[in-house]
Amino acid sequence: MKRIIPCLDVDDGKVVKGVKFEGIKEVGDPVELAKKYCADGADELAFLDIGASVKSRATLIEVVRKVAKEVSVPFCVGGGIRTVDDARAVIEAGVSKVSVCSSAIARPELLRELADAFGSKSVMLAIDAKKVADVNGSPRWNAFSKGGKEDSGIDAIEWAVKAVELGAGEIMVNSIDADGTYTGYDLELTRKIASAVSVPVIASGGAGTLEQIAEVLLNTDADAALVASLLHFDKTTVTEIKKFLDSKGVSVRR
């Protein structure tokens, strides 16, 4: 079964969305949107604390508690999780798994510490990847940190492989180039990472049409598609996405 996962970027208690990590605009209330998407058939939810400060994380934890009381699907929280204690705080608030990005680039052993504490299935590595070179027809994507602003210099595919060795139980591949553009997922990047690791991979960044969602699930080994703008701005619904996927032969939970 392929999964459809609405993503809620949360800042100071509100859901927001931008394009290529810039031009952030307020979208709505995270609890109400979570309830709406779950009632409509979302398989999971993803929450990202884009502020990632102590203040914003405290706000996010309160949001998580409220959502946990209202929905029954698993959900993941990322942003500003730098220690096992940070992860424990959100897990105790009702989260199924935690996502780390910049903090794992800065200190890769964090992945092993989280896996030891909570199990690999509760640990997701988010890779914010951007194409940085194209040498002899072979593209290279680097993993970026700090909200897509800082190039780590680390090859995104090699980083995914290393992260799984360290204990990550899932990889979310977020294309900075495609984020919020409605131009479609980065199929080549998703395909390369999904074929390089043995854990589930979530495609993220760029969903603009139902056809593009079907394309990434049919033409790569991605296990799930993350969707944000299409849902936030009422261009489609989870029900419509799944109905379309089903018509294209993609196995989804209806």
Structure description:
An 8-stranded parallel beta barrel has the order 1-4-5-6-7-10-11-12, surrounded by 8 helices. Helix content is 38%, strand content 30%. The protein contains 10 helices and 12 strands. The longest helix has 17 residues, at 54-70. The chain has helices spanning 30-39, 54-70, 84-92, 102-106, 109-118, 156-166, 187-196, 210-219, 229-232, 238-247; strands at residues 3-11, 14-19, 22-28, 45-49, 75-78, 97-100, 123-135, 138-145, 150-155, 170-175, 201-204, 224-227. α1 (30-39) packs parallel to α2 and α6 runs parallel beside α7 (187-196). It is globular, with a radius of gyration of 17 Å. The protein is an alpha/beta fold and 254 residues long.
Q: Helix and strand succession?
A: EEEHEHEHEHHEEEHEHEHEHH
Main beta sheet strand tally, sense and closure: 8 strands, parallel, barrel
β-strand percent reads 25-35%
User: Distance N terminus to C terminus?
Assistant: 10 Å
* Assembly category: single chain
Shape descriptor reads globular
Spans of at least 5 consecutive residues with low confidence:
none
Mean pLDDT: 92
Number of helices: 10
- Nearest-angstrom radius of gyration? 17 Å
How many runs of DSSP E, i.e. beta strands? Answer: 12
